[in-house]
Design goal:
Layout lengths: L6 H15 L10 E5 L11 H19 L3 E5 L1 E2 L3 H14 L4 H4 L1 H15 L2 H8 L10 E2 L3 H16 L3 E11 L4 E3 L4 E17 L5 E6 L10 E4 L13 E3 L6 E6 L12 E3 L5 H10 L26 H14 L3 E14 L7 E10 L4 H16 L4 E3 L3 H10 L4 E2 L1 E2 L9 E3 L5 E3 L3 H6 L10 E2 L3 E2 L1 H5 L2 H4 L8 E3 L5 E4 H4 L5 E7 L3 H16 L4 E7 L1 E3 L16 H6 L3 H9 L5 H14 L8 H12 L5 E3 L2 H23 L37 H4 L6 H22 L3 H29 L3 H22 L4 H15 L21 H23 L11 E4 L2 H9 L1 H8 L5 E2 L9 E6 L2 E6 L6 H26 L2 H6 L2 H27 L2
Parallel strand pairs: 1-2, 3-4, 9-11, 15-25, 24-25, 26-27, 28-29
Antiparallel strand pairs: 5-6, 5-14, 7-8, 7-10, 7-13, 9-12, 10-11, 14-16, 17-21, 18-19, 18-20, 22-23, 28-31, 30-31
Helix pairs in contact: 1-26, 10-11, 10-16, 18-19, 20-21, 20-24, 21-24, 21-26, 23-24, 23-25, 23-27, 24-25, 25-26, 30-32
Subcellular location: Cytoplasm
Catalytic activity: tRNA(Val) + L-valine + ATP = L-valyl-tRNA(Val) + AMP + diphosphate
Main location: cytoplasm
């Protein structure tokens, strides 16, 4: 092994070897275990959310593979209709062209060309993360096989009466000219105004005042609503109002949607441009009046003066005219939530358009699609982790609306519907199929619908379309390679677990359940693990405009300051934002970002993966896990350097857990390429108590890790492995092994060397799902010493706790010994006693067991703690001034005379106590300021409270230490 761990030198080497080995493919043996990768956009690059999510999935796949499962990690990418089309349209804009200049066919060819050139970016980045995915089965949502599945589903549902075409209100992006899903809309808080407008009754004798943030939409008002129990306005219900600026007459209606406590209690109803108003209009049979064109200009349904105006231009004109007419009662500032398109930044306009819908709300739709999806969770076929997310899922399905599945784009799955010259609709997988199933004779030629399907429609088929459904026989890619075969691969349905974010429970999770249940009769997955959202170290949402985003590859490889600044500000067009981001980056990363390697990044994600909704990613913590990797590396070098001679035949030696009969047996030999010892030669249990203690602790650790894997507590299993590896193996067992390794007992030395090797190899297997690269590199130095013939760690069995024999008696002895050493070391540190100075040790009180243990461990205590041989103080005898630690009923005493200047040390402690008291007062002053507590971010207030807790703990310890000095 090299002297130091250099991640960059080993990662590409091992990933290429793993992929070439075929170990990522299903083994064909064992119980099927499948995970579906939520297909990232083909346009995308790896971000922190991807890296976190994929680390979790890879841990599960590697763990289950080592447990003997027939694993499949099904990967692929999504065609990402709007996002991909926008990228290519932006490229055309640079050439002063639009997609319409090219025409549909040429534009689609251009998109495919871009996909071939750039679409592998994110999958190559996933490889950098070390994912054990079967790349030979990589799919794309517009592959021929997946496209066939999409057409079949659409046609079957249409013929079953579950897909229909209708004129409904949708989120409309006027810049892109398409309907968009709720997920593609951001609600942004903006400063606006609330305008109050007076509407008179037709007879002019009475009036109402309505408040609105969108006065231009009054041109499409069809009613004014009041609460039916609002006694103030009961006289007006049923009366007609004269709509200002238009002259139209509209009724006053009663609807319990109205909040009578808000404003005047009157609400204008504009069904064509507001979702709540649309529902009210439906209840009261009010015909909506659409006043906007698809590019958000006023249409012919408004008075002529406003026609052709942009909606915001029309707003100014309407307000001016209302003021001139004396109908503008009040204008006041108002904060409002504005729906903004993620893709174009245009303000979304609720718009009545002709679209295709999936029926989820009629008696038939609920019975055949919605209810089975609900029952899958309520009946326990699908379990959410954490469980509370099941409520989110069921509440949404209980209140579901029909799904708008059409988009006005060119890139995507074109809707398999055709129209004749009379406007009749014909649906089929192709034109011939549509004609064959026609119920009327087509009039003239057929033309295909121009729209494409919502990207989520094809993504919802992912659990079974990727396995080859609906084709019989093998599905091949463009190179002739088999990527799926439904006949064989349906064993992977349902998959074991879906790892995804809570933001797409509605858009993807529920819809996968709907489609998979309907078309296969099965659930798509057994468990849904909802991963947390990654935020920055202060708990803030990561945003380019804040300058707090992190690129996982920058963490892996490192990046210098100037390239980091340039990269982070490249796409920021507003100078003030760019300056703010640059300032923050220079403050947060004055030396750039150091390279931590993939393993440290993965360990950080694992350690953060709790059941919380968000996790705070701190680079300092990631650097701590880089230190863990270095610690593991150095421990392995220590073990390997101490393998000096083989274990004597017939003497002690531990066997690695997870080895069944027929597996390669373990030897203790340190010579190159040793011959494995037979079971008889390996002999009895480990010789020393330290060996039996570490194996007992290893057994408990493995049992806990398996339990945490089963409950998806990745944070707890990471903590278990970290603490065992760092604290018990590296800090304790390596030290406890030194007396045996350096002693005269050859059998104890050989047994200890063997146990060191066995425990190290077991640690590497247990850590492999979290840190695959470093574990693989070290293991290839360890494996020959044990006579192992596996090519890679992934081929080794998972270490089983039940194959290790615990020795509780030995554990009790070693824990006593550890407590004594810890007490001595703590005193040395607190009293600033030089580490190399040998000091006296006194023991007091205790019982016969303590005395026996002190005698047994005397040499080890002296060697490891740098103390003289322990001396017992007789009961009742005078004791010197000493610092003490308590171990059970025994006191461990370090006489202070001659070791330190008591006066100087007491003075030093006094200064430190005063300093910390001052820090506590500062924090208390801040928290005592009501303005600070009310206005500071919650995380800042929490930090101040935590500082008080930390300072108080230190203060207590220092005061106790001072008292010890008399």
């Amino acid at each position: 092994m090299e002297k130091s761990f250099e991640p960059g030198q080993i990662e590409s080497k091992w990933y290429a070897a793993w992929e070439a080995s075929g170990d990522f493919k299903p083994s064909g043996q064992g119980e099927p275990y499948c995970i579906l990768l939520p297909p990232p956009n083909v346009t995308g690059t790896l971000h922190m959310g991807h890296a976190f999510q994929q680390t979790v999935m890879d841990m599960l796949i590697r763990y289950q593979r080592m447990r003997g499962m027939n694993t499949l990690w099904q990967v692929g990418t999504d065609h990402a209709g709007i996002a991909t089309q926008k990228i290519v349209e932006n490229q055309l804009a640079v050439e002063n062209k639009t997609r319409h200049d090219l025409g549909r066919e040429a534009f689609i060819e251009r998109v495919w060309q871009w996909k071939e050139e750039s679409g592998s970016t994110i999958t190559n980045q996933m490889r950098r993360l070390g994912v054990a995915a079967d790349w030979s089965r990589e799919r794309f949502t517009m592959d021929p096989g997946l496209s066939e599945a999409v057409r079949k589903v659409f046609v079957e549902w249409y013929r079953a009466g579950l897909i229909y075409r209708g004129n409904r209100l949708v989120n409309w992006d006027p810049a892109l000219g398409t309907a968009v899903s709720d997920l593609e809309v951001n609600n942004v808080e903006r400063d606006g105004h609330l305008w109050s407008i007076r509407y008179y009754t037709v007879d002019g004798k009475d009036s109402v005042v309505v408040a609105t943030t969108r006065p231009e939409t009054m041109l499409g008002d069809v009613a004014v609503a009041v609460h039916p129990e609002d006694e103030r306005h009961a006289r007006l219900i049923g009366q007609m109002l004269r709509l200002p600026l238009t002259g139209r007459e509209i009724p006053v209606i009663a609807d319990d949607y109205v909040d009578r406590e808000f404003g005047t209690g009157f609400v204008k109803i504009t069904p064509a441009h507001d979702f709540n108003d649309y529902a009210i209009g439906q209840r009261h049979g009010l015909a909506p009046i659409n006043i906007f064109t698809l590019d958000a200009k006023v249409n012919e349904n408004a008075p002529e003066k406003y026609r052709g105006m942009d909606r915001y231009e029309a707003r100014k004109a309407v307000l001016a005219d209302l003021e001139d007419a004396g109908l503008l009662v009040e204008t006041k500032p108002h904060k409002l939530q504005v729906p903004v398109s993620q893709r174009s930044d245009a303000v979304i306009e609720p718009m009545l358009t002709d679209q295709w819908f999936l029926d989820l709300t009629s008696e038939k739709g609920r019975k055949e699609i919605t209810e089975p999806a609900l029952q899958a969770v309520r009946g326990g076929e699908i379990k959410f982790v954490p469980e509370n997310w099941s409520t989110t899922y069921t509440q949404w399905l209980d209140n579901i609306q029909d799904w708008c599945i059409s988009r006005q784009l060119w890139w995507g799955h074109r809707i398999p519907a055709f129209y004749d010259e009379a406007g009749n609709i014909f649906v089929g997988e192709d034109e011939a199929d549509a004609r064959a199933h026609a119920t009327v004779q087509p009039v003239g030629a057929l033309r295909q619908d121009e729209d494409v399907l919502d990207t989520w429609f094809s993504s919802a088929l992912w659990p079974f379309s990727t396995l080859g459904w609906p084709m019989n026989g093998p599905v091949k890619d463009e190179h002739g390679n088999v990527v799926a075969n439904w006949e064989n691969d349906q064993v992977f349905l349902p998959s074991a677990v879906l790892v995804t974010g809570f933001d797409i429970i509605f858009f993807w999770v529920a819809r996968m359940v709907m489609m998979t249940k309907y078309f296969t009769g099965r659930v798509p997955f057994k468990h849904v693990y909802i991963n947390a959202i990654v935020r920055d170290a202060e708990g803030q949402k990561m945003s380019k405009s804040k300058g707090n985003t992190l690129d996982p590859l920058d963490l892996i490889d490192g990046i210098e300051l100037e390239p980091l600044v340039a990269k982070s500000t490249r796409s920021l067009l507003i100078p003030q934002v760019r300056e703010k981001v640059e300032k923050r980056i220079r403050k947060d990363y004055p030396n750039g970002i150091p390279a931590i390697g993939t393993d440290a990044l993965r360990f950080t994600f694992a350690a953060l993966a709790s059941y919380s909704r968000t996790i705070n990613f701190d680079i300092k913590r990631a650097e701590g896990y880089k230190a863990f990797c270095n610690k593991l590396w150095n421990a392995a070098r220590f073990v390997l350097m101490n393998l000096e001679s083989p274990l004597p035949s017939g003497e002690g030696g531990a066997q690695a857990p997870g080895e069944g009969s027929g597996s390669a047996q373990l030897a203790a030999s340190a010579v190159p390429s040793p011959q494995p010892l037979s079971r008889g030669e390996r002999g009895s249990a480990p010789v020393t108590e330290a060996e039996r203690w570490i194996l007992t602790r290893l057994k408990q650790t493995l049992a806990d890790v398996e339990q945490h894997f089963a409950s998806y507590r990745f944070d707890l299993l990471a903590q278990e492995l970290y603490e065992f590896t760092w604290n018990e193996f590296c800090d304790w067992f390596l030290e406890l092994s030194k007396p045996a390794l350096n002693g005269d007992d050859a059998v104890a030395a050989a047994s200890t060397r063997h146990t060191l090797l066995v425990v190290l190899e077991t640690i590497l297997r247990a850590l492999h799902p979290i840190v695959p690269f470093i574990s693989e590199e070290i293991w290839h130095s360890v494996a020959p010493k044990l006579g192992l013939d596996a090519k890679f760690l992934l081929e080794r069995p998972w270490p089983r706790a039940d194959e290790i024999t615990a020795d509780e008696a030995a554990t009790a002895e070693i824990e006593w010994f550890k407590n004594v050493l810890s007490g001595i070391r703590r005193i040395r540190a607190e009293m600033n006693i030089a580490p190399g100075k040998t000091i006296p040790l006194l023991l007091a009180d205790g019982d016969a067991t303590d005395r026996a243990r002190a005698t047994k461990f005397a040499a080890q205590i002296s060697f490891l703690a740098r103390v003289d041989a322990p001396q017992w103080i007789a009961s009742g005898a005078d004791e010197p001034a000493a610092a003490a630690a308590v171990v059970g009923s025994m006191r461990v005493l370090i006489p202070l005379a001659g070791l330190i200047d008591l006066g100087a040390e007491k003075a030093r402690l006094g200064k430190e106590i005063s300093r910390i008291e001052g820090e506590i007062k500062k924090c208390e002053g801040k928290l005592g300021n009501a303005n600070f507590v009310a206005n500071a971010p919650a995380e800042v207030v929490a930090q101040e409270r935590q500082r008080i807790t930390d300072w108080t703990t230190q203060l207590t310890a220092l005061r106790e230490q001072s008292q010890k000095l008399g």
